[in-house]
Amino acid sequence: MSIPVVWSPETRRHEPMREVWVGVPTDGTEVPARVDRILDALAGRKRIEATSHDDEILHRVHDPALVEHLRTIHAEWAEGPYDELAGQDRVVPYVFPTPAMTQGMPVTGAVATHGRAGQFGYDTMTLVGPGTWEAARAAVDCALTAVDLVASGDGATAAYALCRPPGHHVTRQGYGGSCYLNNAAAAAEALRDAGHAIVAVVDLDAHHGNGTQAIFWERGDVRYGSLHVDPGAGWFPHFFGHAHETGAGDGAGATRNLPLEEGTTDGRWLEAVEQLAGFAAGSDALVVSLGVDAAADDPESPLQVTADGYAGAGRLLGSLGLPSVVVQEGGYHLGTIGGLVAAYLDGHG
Half-sphere exposure of 141 toward its Cβ, with a 13 Å CA cutoff? Predict the structure, then answer.
């Protein structure tokens, strides 16, 4: 059975416009056209529009205060003077209450909207605009609807969630890296609810999914494995994604990171996918964080994976025979993103 595509037109509503990197505004690359390029490439597959879900699972993987912040912060920003005074109609943090600032002291919530903007956002690149909440929340519904399909017993053993914006950089209490809500984490939690005792998340994105790792860091019922460009070579998320990070508490040994050298091509990349397939084997269900930004043409990473590489990854992970939810993460080259996603899904079968 061909893997169905779950999507929502609401995911087009997020318009990042720009990112602020090292103080310089640059054009955003996580644009709405990503959705349509992927849909065009998957035109022959069954298409299912996402259904709405309540916030119960979302509040288990995220602090409800983060969810409420994202739901309301842009409306508050729009009521302020920021567009008139600074020409900025997107929410951009400029101060962050990190441990370096708080030093263990009790924190009083900021009164100013521009002060509170950094309470949950952890970088200056991930701007919140007028449709950001609607798109991010719809992306979660895409992931949860894909779980519903796989868990329904109606024959679908795998489903693809066209989630946009992506989500794997979102922790329980913070968002960043062009991500706002963690779609893969929500899918893993929902699969647990569906009766799968151990769920594996395999992250193929070019960048480490620090958010997914953080959410399940101390849990043994969700395994997290990632292959990604080495943060030790200066790549986002910089502080996480190293091989020595393996989990803690009940999650000790349930995290595996495979950092890769810049310029890694199909052969070495697929060796790492095979290692993560072995790591996931023995689980009861699988979530694939399908970033296709490891591809050679992608502007956001130095990896050199081809469509054949993604097809090979699909075969390796599909051969596990696990109920699977494939969640879209990164991939920013509009000319190739759709074909790369199709290559993975064709391989997964």
Answer: 18
Average pLDDT over residues 268-296: 98
**How many domains are contained in the chain?**
1
Can you tell me the mean pLDDT for 53-61? 98
Structural domain that includes position 220: 5-63+138-348
Distance between CA atoms of residues 255 and 238, nearest Å? 17
For the domain that residue 225 is a member of, what is the CATH number?
Answer: 3.40.800.20
Are the C-beta atoms of residues 227 and 272 closer than 8 Å to each other?
yes
DSSP state of 219: -
pLDDT at 339 over 80: yes
Instruction: Flag whether 340 is in a domain.
Output: yes
DSSP summary character for residue 331: -
Cβ atoms 161, 145 nearer than 8 A: yes
Q: How are beta strands 18-21 and 24-27 bridged, if at all?
A: antiparallel
Summarize the confidence of residues 258-264 as an average pLDDT: 98
| Residue 94 in domain | no
The pLDDT of residue 199 is: 98
B/e letters for 115-125, b = 16+ CB within 10 Å, e = fewer, are: ebbbbbbbbbb
Q: What are phi and psi of 287, to 5 degrees?
A: -115, 130
Predicted local confidence at residue 228, as pLDDT: 98
Q: Which residues are catalytic?
A: 169
Q: How far apart are CA 201 and CA 140, in angstroms?
A: 16
Asked if residue 53 is part of any domain, the answer here is: yes
Q: Name, in order, each residue with C-beta under 8 angstroms of 54's C-beta and a sequence gap of 6 or more.
A: none
Instruction: Look at residue 159 and give its three-state secondary structure.
Output: strand
Mean pLDDT of 145-166: 94
Per the domain annotation, does 16 fall within a domain?
yes
